[in-house]
Design a protein that fits this description.
Distance between the termini: 31 Å
Number of domains: 2
CATH superfamily of the largest domain: PurM-like C-terminal domain
CATH class of the largest domain: Alpha Beta
Shape: globular
CATH architecture of the largest domain: Alpha-Beta Complex
Length: about 300
C-alpha cells in the first residue's frame, strides 16, 4: 500500500485518518458501511432512521478526533425491490442530520444488486494542526470520562424487537438513542480546542470494547467503577440484560469516552450543552482492565462488545 509519509499524519488504527493539507488545518477522513441484516432491519428501522444512523456513525468518528465535519459522500447498493419512496425517506434522514450539523453532501453513487441494501458513507472533516484527539495519548493517573448515557441504544433496539413501544419517557429516550443517535461533534471540538483530553474514542462497539481499544493504543490499562457508569433508566423485560450489562457491552451509543490529565480536571464541566459528563474511572499502568463492583469487589472487565472478527 503506497503511503504519502509527508502528509499522512495518522493512518489505519484510530477513529479516522489525518492528512496535512496546509493553511493550519488537517483533514479528517473516515468511512462507514451499514449493511441490511447486520446494522439495520427493514422490519424495525424506518428508512429515515437508516439514513440518519448511517451518517451519524461516520460523523461520530470525526467527533472523537475533535474535528468539524464538512462534507459527506453516500454510495448505495439497493435491491430491485427498493421503492422510490423508501429511498427518498433514507435520503431525508441523511440530509436532516447533515443540515443540523452543516455537512454538505458532495457526491456518491448508486448500484442495483441482488442482495439487501448497503449504505456506504465517506465523511470529511477538519481540525487545527496539532489539535486532533487520538486514542494513543492516555497516561497512568488520567481520569476517564464518558458523555451521556450508555446502553440506551442497545435497550432501544431490544425494545423495538420486542414490540414494546410504550409511552414512558425512558422508553422514548431509548428508542430515539437507537434510531436517531447524535454525534458529539461540539463536545469533541470543545475538548480539542482547550486541549483537555489526552485521548478520546467514540463508544460505538460498547464501553468494554472501546475502552480496550483506547488502552491498547495508549499502552495502558484502566479501572472503572460500576456505580459511576451512566446506565439506562429502564431495564429489559425479565430474562434480558441488566442496565449495567447494556452500558458495558451494548454499543452504538456514539458517546465520547475520553481521558483527562489530573491537572485539567477542574476545567471539565459537569455537563456540556445539556449532555452530562461522568467521571467513571482512571487510567492505570497495568495493561489490565478492571471493574470495581458496587460491593467493592474488583473483577476483570472482559471486552464483550461488538468485535468485527469474533465468530458469532
Amino acid at each position: 500500500m503506497a503511503k504519502d509519509k509527508g502528509r499522512l499524519k495518522l493512518g489505519i488504527g484510530d477513529d479516522a485518518a489525518l492528512v496535512e493539507v496546509g493553511r493550519g488545518n488537517q483533514v479528517i477522513l473516515t468511512t462507514d458501511l451499514s449493511i441490511e441484516g447486520v446494522h439495520f432491519l427493514r422490519g424495525l428501522h424506518t428508512p429515515r432512521a437508516v439514513g440518519h444512523r448511517a451518517l451519524a456513525r461516520a460523523l461520530s468518528d470525526i467527533a472523537a478526533m475533535g474535528g468539524t465535519p464538512r462534507f459527506a459522500l453516500i454510495s448505495l447498493a439497493i435491491s430491485s425491490r427498493t421503492t422510490r419512496s423508501w429511498l427518498e425517506d433514507l435520503y431525508g434522514g441523511f440530509l436532516g442530520l447533515a443540515k443540523q450539523l452543516r455537512v454538505a453532501l458532495v457526491g456518491g453513487d448508486t448500484a442495483v444488486v441482488s442482495g439487501g441494501v448497503s449504505v456506504d458513507i465517506v465523511a470529511v472533516g477538519e481540525v487545527p494542526r496539532g489539535r486532533a484527539l487520538r486514542r494513543s495519548g492516555a497516561r497512568a493517573g488520567d481520569q476517564l470520562f464518558v458523555s451521556g448515557t450508555l446502553g440506551r441504544s442497545a435497550l432501544g433496539f431490544s425494545l423495538l424487537r420486542a414490540g414494546r413501544a410504550r409511552k414512558a419517557a425512558s422508553v422514548k429516550a431509548a428508542l430515539r438513542a437507537h434510531l436517531y443517535p447524535e454525534p458529539r461533534c461540539a463536545l469533541g471540538r470543545y475538548l480539542s480546542e482547550r486541549r483537555l483530553a489526552s485521548a478520546c474514542i467514540d463508544v460505538s462497539d460498547g464501553l468494554s470494547t472501546d475502552l480496550a481499544h483506547l488502552g491498547d493504543s495508549s499502552g495502558v490499562g484502566a479501572r472503572i467503577w460500576a456505580s459511576r457508569i451512566p446506565v439506562p433508566e429502564t431495564s429489559l423485560p425479565r430474562g434480558g440484560n441488566s442496565p449495567l450489562q447494556l452500558a458495558l457491552h451494548g454499543g452504538e451509543d456514539y458517546e465520547l469516552l475520553f481521558a483527562v490529565p489530573p491537572d485539567k480536571l477542574s476545567r471539565i464541566p459537569r455537563a456540556f450543552r445539556g449532555v452530562a459528563l461522568h467521571r467513571i474511572g482512571e487510567i492505570s499502568r497495568s495493561r489490565k482492565l478492571t471493574l470495581i463492583r458496587s460491593d467493592g469487589k474488583i473483577i476483570p472487565l472482559v471486552s464483550a462488545g461488538h468485535d468485527h472478527f469474533r465468530k458469532h
